[in-house]
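The instructor's notes for this session suggest beginning with a concrete chain rather than abstract definitions. Hand out the sequence below and ask the class to guess, before any prediction is shown, which regions might be ordered.
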Amino acid sequence: MFSIVNQANSAVRRDLQQWSQIATESVERAIGNDSPLQRRIEVNANVISDLLLEALVSPEDFRGVRDDRGNLQAGAIVIDMADHLFVEYIVTAPWNITQDSPLSVNKAATALMSLLALESDRNGHFGRILLYALPDAIEFYQKIGFIETGEGSPNAPELELTIAAARRLLDRQT
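After discussion, reveal the predicted structure:
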């Protein structure tokens, strides 16, 4: 259902610029309509902006997933550390938050995390991934197996996908 994107080439950069424009428009609509999704939409727009900047600076660190129609559905900035992958940013396409577009899909971020666990395994880290989570995203990460390490801050706790949790995630995806 999803295919991996391993760097931010010109097509990905165009897609991310489109995401940014759509996310900005979604924020404006959410504010105008007093949407219950307003905070999620605003956070999504902010992370998209950060992801786009990082993808321009370090295109080789970008990872993403495209659906079977070729639409970029989730993206991340990933750094290969000594014993794990570190996810600096991860975000889903804006239409996956609002669910108001024929482009909307489910499970894009989960598919991307599974592919990152596989990359971590192939890089000799046995699936281990670390990241600092935004408070609104902690539940998502916990559902796919991440645990809090006790590091980080209350506004951005460090979470880890352990080797055992990575195996379970990969087994569920196959």
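Then share the key points. The chain has one domain: 2-173. The first helix runs from residue 10 to 33.
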